[in-house]
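Amino Acid Chain and Its Fold in Token Form
===========================================
What this section holds: a protein sequence and its matching fold, both as plain text.
Structure line: whole-number tokens from a learned vocabulary of local backbone shapes, matched to residues.
Purpose: to set a sequence beside its fold so the mapping can be learned.
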Amino acid sequence: MVEQIVIDNCVIVATLLDKEKKLIECRNLLEKVKTGEYIAVEPYIVLVEIVAAIKRRAGSSYLADRVKQDLCDINTIVFLDITSTRAREMGVGGAGAVHGKRQSKDIRKINPIKPIWKIWENLL
């Protein structure tokens, strides 16, 4: 079974900006997602945050839209609509509901998602 992870939006943004300190590490991680070594499971808010950051930092709506489309075209990145009902099922509330920070034991057994910080520890 392919391991599922959650990637923070700043990791994806860092892959697109040449001046980022962890550019190579971030690109390597995203490449592993693109090649199917990992599946990234993300709430839709992450996509919104990425697009907003690219638009703000690059000053280009066109580039931001292109990044959004490119990310949506990667079949190993799954964007989830985190509704209040789904959040309750996952055992989260408040900001955790938006970011999917905690999961109930039952959800983990069915669909284990490894938080990115478990993979990322050696890069920091």
